[in-house]
Each structure stands twice: as structure tokens, then as C-alpha cells.
Write a structure and sequence with these properties.
The complex is a heterotetramer. Chain A has helices spanning 6-43, 59-69, 80-98, 124-145, 149-180, 185-191, 200-203, 205-218, 230-233, 243-268, 286-307, 313-343, and strands at residues 107-109, 112-114. Chain A is mostly helical. Chain B is mainly alpha-helical. Chain B has six helices and no strands. Chain B has helices spanning 2-22, 26-46, 50-74, 88-111, 126-133, 136-160. The chains are: A mainly alpha, B mainly alpha, C mainly alpha, D mainly alpha. The interface between B and C is medium-sized, with 12 and 12 residues.
Amino acid sequence: MEGLTELQVELLAATVKVLLVVGVLLGLFSGMTYVERRLLAFMQFRLGPNRTGPLGLLQPVADGIKLFFKEELMPAAANRLAFLGAPVVAIATAFMAVAVIPYGPPFEAFGRRWQIQIADLDVGLLFLFAISSLGVYGIVMAGWAANNKWSLLGGLRSAAQMFSYELSLGLSFVGVILLAGSFRIADIVDRQAGGFWNWNAIVQFPAFLVYSIAACAEVSRTPFDLPEGESELVAGFHTEYSSMRFALLQMAEYVNMITVAVLATNLFLGGWHPGVPGLPAEGIPGFVWFSAKVGLILFVFIWLRGTLPRFRYDQLMSFGWKVLIPLAVLNILATAAVVALARR
Amino acid sequence: MDAVLFYVFAVLAVVNAVLVVAQRNPVYSAFCLIAVLCCLSAIYGLLGSPFIATLQIVVYAGAIMVLFLFVLMLLNVKREERSPGDGVRLKAAGFLLCAVLVAQAGAVLLRARPGGTGAAAYDASTRRMAEILFSPYFLYAFEATSVLILSAIVGAVVLAKKEL
Amino acid sequence: MLLEDPLIHVVPWVILLLPLAGFTVLALFGEWIKRDKEDAGAGYIACFTVLASFALSCWTTLRLYGLVGGPEGLRFSSPYLGFEWIEAGGFRVPMSLLVDPLSVVMILVVTGVGSLIHVYSLGYMAKDAERVSYFSYLNLFTFFMLLLVLGGSLPVLFVGWEGVGLCSYLLIGFWYKKDSASAAGMKAFVVNRIGDAGLILGMVFVFHQFGSLDLVDIATNAGALAAEPWGELGPVTIAGLLLFLGACGKSAQIPLHVWLPDAMEGPTPVSALIHAATMVTAGVYMVARLAPLYHQSETAMAVVAVVGAATALMAATIALVQTDIKRVLAYSTVSQLGYMFLACGVGAFGVAVFHLFTHAFFKALLFLGSGSVIHAMSGEQDMRKMGGLRGKIPVTFWTFAAGTLAIAGIWPFAGFFSKDEILLGAWNAHQRVLFGLGLFTALLTAFYMSRLLFMTFFGSFRGGSEAEHHVHESPLSMLGPLVILAIGSASVGFLNIPRFVAPVFRLPADHGHHVGWLPWVATLSAVAGIALAFHLYLQRTDLPGRIGTALAPLRSLFEAKYYFDHVYDGFTRRVVVGGSESFLWKWMDVGLIDGAVNGLAASWESVAEGARRAQTGFVRAYALAILGGAVAVLGYLLWS
Amino acid sequence: MDAPGFLQHALLLSLLLFGIGALGVFLRRNVITIFMCVELMLNAANLAFVAFSRAHGTLDGQVLVFFVMVVAAAEAAVGLAIVIALQRHRDTLDVDAFSLMRW
């Protein structure tokens, strides 16, 4: 490491981190598609894809090859620029959000302290919130550009839905932030060290509830998958997409889902801290705890999809505005009161 | 590095702003405006105001412009039709006055001594912002904004709803 | 020790606010109370508030009695209920109360006589459809009257002053469906306005002179001023005269006396309370209250004395020829008020208050008695149709007789003491003419009151047999107050009110010596008056007519009430109405003002006709205008 | 970022954006586009606030930006609701079609 300037070290580390995170996420994405299909199949007493490779493990590769070689289609009346740009915007915002989230405990190497996180921002959570609010553009652009009424309706639905649930999502953060007194995600994670009773999922249970529901809606997973409800809107905003662009949109969706799961782990489930006190710290590395929690949440996502029916649109809206937001606001008031009293 | 980024974003902002105005299609205008807002957010960041930069994205790009796009799509707004001789005099007068205004203000700017100290200890952290925002100077204004927003919500619902 | 008692700081406010509370309840929930068909509810509420006020007033008086030595009295502003009412530059008016011997005497009269009259009204108004508003007005009046006498500064007093004026207007015109009643109400209101203007101007002068409107401040500072001798028209004289104009209006003195006889259109208890016992004495109260000020101006004192004496004589002569029972009493009231002012004018302020006090008793008694007579006669007020009522309504007769003796000034009734002291004051002030006038008026008073008594209760009934059949005694709620007032009229003369209130006036000790023969002369004149009436109206009933014919010019002068109403009417018609019509209306308003306004409007209309073209309705044109404005402002800033 | 010319350039950028926005108000006829141009002008003002705040080393300018954003959000909500109502009643978004409020 000698002979390198500080700036060069920073750049090098950043590049490595970016490559690592993107690589892992891409791997997770393809893995997730397989796992989701298999799990859903099991839940429905089917087998799912099991022909490609052992246990069908090569299925994602086969899918990738298929998508690469399919013909690119664009409707004649489509708005070219927006049609081409939409998947880019979607995937870009998805990956930007990933940048500020820590994925494991800090560790020492090469005489420096490292954090598995691309950028450790002071306003990390706020930044994340900002980026996630941009995520809607990809979908709206995709829906509008195709010049297809199903797409447009899907895009509109998606805009309204994300708009509504983003509010409760943001409000659910506030209680957590109040407790930690910081926007830095690492600080929030550290506040939950010591045992599962310190986890925000327990301490901030209403916020956790609101977050779980709003996050589901935010990534348009069942039971909130109205923007792409097959039975009503063909395939929603990506009806007209095919080939790699379709893959990009799909990828953005899965990355968002993973981001949400990782964030839930960090904000509510104690991050990389083991929930049980008294365990030897060296026994199981924090990263393993972290991955296990993320995996659990992802499983729950799939489980929900296999179990729950879809909301009706007006129910979705009134639930978001009339139940979730008031609940989140009440939680904020209570938390703020407790924090203020405790400080006195 | 920062300086370079500043000029890159400044040029991007100006180009996109021109596109906002020059477009006939409102949807394109909206997309360009979003680009301008993002560039401004970056510039705020470069000027050392991370809170405002984030807020710019959350409020402007993430909320206001989504609303614009939503309305544009809801109403299915088409390109502006070109109609011959439409308001040429107005446009000319507007152009002239804008040019004069920019020239005047530009003259002020160029004449001014580059004085700003750019105070060395510039702490624009979120905590600092919160302290100022909730100080007695701004607290009541801050509380008043909540009333403003509430009335705006009610007003918007009343105006836009077909029948109450 | 007295000032440390926290109760004394609160009780005056309670006294003041209780009737207001009663009014508020009656005014707000009147409809609800009315729902009860038998409703005495409204009356009971009104009576309770005033009786409670009276009890508290008695308590206050007893507490204060120990402090009589000090002239300061008690000024109540903060800390309990007072507040800064007006504060403008150097002009400060705190909402303060002043409790001293003088105001205590007044609140005793107001709440004591007031509560008796409230009780009396229970019976008298029992059949009236608008009892609730009647009692709410009475309560409101009591509140304003208490504010008037308790107010610690002239503006506060003025609020009460105007308030009682308003209530007087409302109650005179209480039977508003009768044209004469509402006209009388308006007359009272308008005449009082003239006096009020004088009062306001007087207040301005007082403020200019003393820099304060606080009553205690005025009393303290007045002594330091140089006395203004007869003929000099200095600021104190002007202030005194202007304030006296206000007093004339409220207390019905020449030339503003014309409203009081007409005010008899109101219900009789109202006449007793407002137009005999309390409100009309407000002028006397104010002059007495400002005694230190008046004392510095011989001119003002002389005017007060002369006006008082003239009014006393004039009203007494008019009373000689009245045939309406209440009008006789009304002119008698005017006459007695003149007596009080005469006392003030000769420097016997304490005596004036004394007479005010005794007069409140016997005049209220007389009015209530006349009310009882009218009640018995089923509404008939003309004495020529009465007679011989003595046996039919004995309680009324005996109490009425007590009142007559009191006003005539026969020992030991109250009027004897106060009237005697007034004459003594005039004698001691070396005003022989005024003394003579007073003595003659006393004779006239005894005469016309005896005439009233004899025409009503003695002789034979002249109202026809059917009316005679209906004559009946009044209910207990009316007789009770009569009896109490009769006892009062017979006994309150023994109270030494002049000495009790003397510290308030801060005047040098009275050097007047006692004149031994005076009580005999006064009693003699009263007895002479009674004897004359007895002779003329019971023995030689043909004589009055013949005397009237013999002295026809004098009689028509009396019957026309000295032509005051004619002159005022003519003046109003010719000068005020005529002048307003031809000059103010036709020329000034229509020609000048309307012309200017219309012309201006027309010219603006033509300007606007052109200017409105700027309103194109195109948003972007407006935006262009805004931008142009910005450019212009910026250009100006750059250029300068 | 402490070069003295920086503030000047930020202000120049602000001025340019403002001018472009103002111009847009006159060039465009669509109500929504005009609305967006107004937003552009607001943002130019915000930039000036932030730049001055930086130059003075105080945060008051940023607080002001905060309030401007709040007002802009409220304005957008009400304004777009009005736009929807306009479209519903007149079936057009051309500003020149709404000129009832004239003499």
C-alpha cells in the first residue's frame, strides 16, 4: 500500500467496493429469480424449473442467454428517447440507492479501518430516501413512452402508489432517526447492539409495521403489485418491453427489493449485530448474521407473494392515506415525546 | 475537481433549462426540468449544503415533478400546436425585457467586487440546520408552513375533485 | 386595618356587577324563562340581585363607618378587578371605583330604594306581557346607576351617566305601542344629549385644568387653585358651568327640565325609581362630588343657586294647576331637585345630599302610592275623577299621607330636617332673596301636595259608580314597600347625613350659626299651605275656580308650563328643521357635497374607461407587466 | 470551493436560469409548461440564496430555501389542481383561452 497517495487509495477502494457490491447484487438478482420460482412452485405443490443443470440451478444462466439473443422490439408510436431511457433511469436509481447502505460490520485490514459501504454519508438515510423517490421516474417514463394504454395506466398507478406509500415509508424512518439521533445508517445499526430487545423492530414496532407494509408497496410486490397486475393491465408499464431492456427493468425491481430488505435489516433488525447476547463475538462473523437476516426478509417477500391476494386499487389508496400515515405520525409523536422526556 | 464538476453541472443545467423552454412537448419539458433540478442539487452539494441538496431531490424531483408528470399523463397533454403569428409582439417584448433584465443584473454582478469571504468554518450539517430552523426566529414560520401545507392539501382536493 | 381586609376590595365590585349579572341572565335566557306561564321567575332573579347588592352595600357602609374621619375614601382599581381602561399618551383612565361616605350614601339609596321598587314591580307589573324585558331593564339601570355613583373618575361616571340615560329611554318608552310613550322617551333622550354635550366639554376643561380626570385628584388639586370671584370667567368657572349644564339635563333644571314631566308615560315604579329617587339626582350627586371645584368659582355657584331656586319656584307653580296625579308629582320632583341645587349653590353640599337622601324616600313613597292609587282606579290618573278613596284603600292612604307630610316638612318627618337645613344654608350664605324664594316654595309645596291628597282621598268619589265599584286595595308585594318607605320617610331625618359626608367635600368648617326661629317659620309656612289647601279643596270647593278666573293670565301661564315646550318646538321647527332643509340639505348636501362626489366619480369613471383597457385578461400580458416593472426598478437602482 | 470567483459564477448561473425561466413564460402557451418555467425561476432564486449563504457563512439563506421549497410544494399542489379543473371545464390548457377576467 506504500507509494500510493491518499487520493489513489480512496479511488482504488471505491472502485473495488463498487465492483464488489454490483457483482454481488447481480449475482443475487439471478439467484433470486431462481429461488423465487422454485419456492413459489413448492408452495403450490409444483416442482418449478428443475431441468437446466443440477436441480435447475443453471436456469438463470439460460434465461440470461435467452434474453440476450431476443429481438429488440419497439412500438412504432413509442416515444423513442423516453422508451430507451426508461430502463436506464430505473436501473441507475436502483443502484444509486445501494451506495449508501452498509453491508457488514467495520473491520481492520491493511492498517486501515474499512466499512463495507460505498459511501458513508452523513445524511445517508435522507439520501436513500431521495434516490428512492426518483425511482418512480423509470416506471413512469416506461409507461408513458410505450404509448400503450395498459402501459400508461400501469405507469400512472405506479406513480400514485409510490407517491402515497413513500410518505409512510419516510415517516416510519423518523422514529428510528429520533432514537439514534443521526441520519447515518451505521449509527442507527450501532444503537441496536446488545440484544434483540434493542432492535427497532421491537422498540419501534409501529414504525416496523408501517415500514414493512410500505416497503412492500414501494417495490410493488404482492399484495401491492397493481402497476403490473397481469389480469388487469397485461403486464403494466413493461408490457411493450422485451429482451435486455425487459431484463434491466426486471433487474431494477429485484435490486430495489434487495435494497429494501437490506435497509430493513439495518434499520429494524439490528444489522450485523447478533440478536442474542453472550455469544462469542468471533464465533459467527457479523456478515453472516447480516446475510441471514436479509435472506429471511427476502424469503418473507416470496412467501407473501405465494400467499396473499392483490389489493383493490381504492383499498390500496385509502389504506395508505387513512391507516398507514396516521399510524406513522402517531408513532412519531409518541417517540418524540419519549425522547424529549428522556433527554430532560 | 470540485470546480470542474461545478462547471459541468452548470453547463448541463443551462442546456436543460433552455430545453425546458424550447420544447413544444410538455412531457419533454418536464423531463428536462427534472434534469435541471438534479444538476442544481449537485451544485448545492458542491457548495457545501448536503441537506438542501437532498431536500432538492426529495421535494422537487421526488414530489413536485412527479406531480407534474402525473398531471401531464392524466390529462394526456399533447404538443403545443403551432399557430401562425401567434403573439409575436408579446414574445418579442418578453424576449427583449428578459434580455434587458439579464443584462442589468449581469452588469451588477460583473461590477461587484468578488468579496465573499467563503467563511472557512462553514458548517451546514443537518444538525446545524435543525438548530436554526427550530430557533425562536424561524420556529413560528416553520409551524406556519404546516398550516400552509394543510390548507394547500384541502384546497387541492376541493379544486380537483369532481364532486365532493 | 380596613384596607388590609381583602373583602373590602372585592365587595364593591360584587355590588356593582350583581345587577349586571341579573341583566345578562334575563337578557340571554329571557325566552326560556318566559316559557313558564306563571313566571315570576324573571322578577325574582331581578329582586334577588338588587337585594343582595343592598345587603353588601349595608356591609360596606358599616365597614366604612369607622373610617369617616379620613376624607380619602377608598379607591379601588387593581389588584382584583380593576384594569387600565384607556391609556393614550398622558391620558390615563383606570377602571376604578371610589368608595367614600358620599358614594356609600348613594349606593344605599340606589340599592335600598331600588330593591323596594323591584319588589313593588312584582305586583305592579304582574299582568304585563313583557315583564322579562322590564326586569332586565331595571337591573341594567341599577348596574349603570351604581357605576355612576361608584365610578372613580369622570369618564367612568360618564359611562354610568349614559347608561342610565339609555335605560331611562327604554323604560319611559316601555309601552312603546303608545305613541306618546315612545315620543316621551325620545324627548328625554334628545334633551339629555344637550346636557351630555356640556358634560363632555366640561370634562375636557377639567382635564385641561388638572391633567387628570380622577375624582380624588380633582378634589385634592381644586383647593390649590386661586378662587375666581363673581363675574370672572376663568377655566374653573367655565368647567363648572359646562358640567352644570350636564347636571341640568340629567336633573331636569331650567332650561332642560322639559323632559321629566313627559317621562311619566313610563310605568309608575320606573317613575319612582328613575325619575324621582335615583337617576334624576345624578346631577346633584355630580355637583356635590365636584364640590371642591365649584367652591373655587363664585360665578358657577351663583348660577347653580339661581337656577335651582328658579326651577323650584317655577315647577311648584306649575304643579298648582296640574290635574294628573303623576304630573303633580313630576313637577314636585323638579321643584325638589331645584331645592337641592339651591343647597349646592349656597355651599351646603352636605345638605343637598341630605335632601337627596330624604327625598328619595318620600318621593319614591309618593310615586309608589300614586301607582297604588292608579292600580286601584284601574289606570285612571286624573284627580278630578277620584276622591274619597281614604276608606277604600286605607294602607295606601296612610302611607301617602306620611309622604305628603314628609315633603311638606312637618316634624318629625324627614323632609322637615333636610328642607330646614337648606333654608338655613341660604340664610347663612346671606342670600336673602333665595331664602325668601325657598320659603315661598315650601309653602307652595305644602299646598299642592295637600291639594293632591285632599282631591284624591277626601270628599266624595267623582269617577262614576261603576269605577267606584272596581276600586280595590293593592297586593301585599306593593303594600310592603309602601309601608317600609313610609317608616323610612318618618325616620331617616334623624340621621346626620351632612356630617357623615362632610369630609368628602374638603371645605372649610361651617361657621354658620344656628338660627332658632327658622324651624318655626318653615313649619308655619308648611302648615299654612296645608291649611289653605284644606280650606280651598274641602271646605269652599267653589273657590279654586273663581280664583282661577280672577287670575286668568297667571293660570294660563302655569297651565302652559311657562311656554317652554312652545318655544322649543318653534325653535326646532323653524331653525333646526327649516334651516337644515334649506341650507344643509338642499344647498350643502345636494349641491355641494353630492356635486363634488358625483363629479369626482364621473371624472374617475372616464379615466377608468380608458384605464380598464389594460386589463386584457391574458395572463402573459400581466407577467410582461411584472417583468417590465422589475426592469424599471432595477434600471432606476442602477442609474441612481 | 473557496475560490472567490465561485460565488460570482453561481450567481451568474442563477441569473441565467432565471432569465431562461422568465423567457419561457412568454414563449410557451401551455399552462403546465408555464408553471414549470415559474418553478425554474424559483430554483434560480434558491441557487442565489444558497450561494449567498455560502459566501456569508451563515445558514439563514438555506433556511429560506427550505421555506421556498415548502411554498413551492404547496403551490404545485394547488396549481395543478387548478390546472385539472381548467382542463375539465374548458377542455384546453392554452393560457390565452382563459381571458374571462378582462374589462
